[in-house]
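To: structure subgroup
Subject: Chain for Friday's discussion

All,

I'm putting the inputs and outputs inline so they're searchable in the archive.
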Amino acid sequence: MKLISYNLRKHRAMGELEGLVERHGVDVLCLQEADTEDIPAQIAGLRLADSTSRNRLGLAIYYRANTYTALEVMSMALKKSMHDRVLKPAEERMLGVRLKDIDHSREFIVASFHAAPLTALNSLRRHQIRAALSELAALGTQLPILMVGDYNYPVFKENLGQKVREAGFELNLSDTHTYTRYRFFRGHYDFATSVGFDVDRITTLPQGRSDHLPILVTAEPVSPNGRGH
């Protein structure tokens, strides 16, 4: 499975998506900062599974309908930062979908995630990550889970990785930086967190109109420790 995660920077990079999907043979597309009132039902053969509705700039997930069936979706509001309480930029920060592989009759969960901005503490973002992963497990007992998106976590990633592993998940970074807007804040922002997936590689793609660079995740759901099918 090939999956792209992309923070569109207030919808500015929306016009790039069709080319990205076609160029890389993408099966699943996970978006952040998409104008959910101005997104199509399909992008280059991918079907919209769902999008968040309580914030204009929100999350969306597309999937290849001739390969997968969308069985169930869920969105979630996570613990708010002070920035969220005052400016209210995003109510729902996680969107998940349970997919079934049509040919192999196996199910798994993918999710698009957008953590609180850098004005919040890392401890809050860790809380959001744990809560999101815990809720995704409710979409299907012991199914493989892959959550991608903008984690807003440029420093102390080793500590985050340890916390994620303690929760039974793996944290995977791409091969190079994914955010370049401000020199001081450049680094890895866009991650993949998974359990029950064999993540082969994560590649940072060339920069477009967003301050985030899209990441291409190549992964396969497997069945370690009883997970999956």
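Points worth raising on Friday:
The chain has one domain: 2-226.
Residues 122-136 form the longest helix (15 residues).

D.
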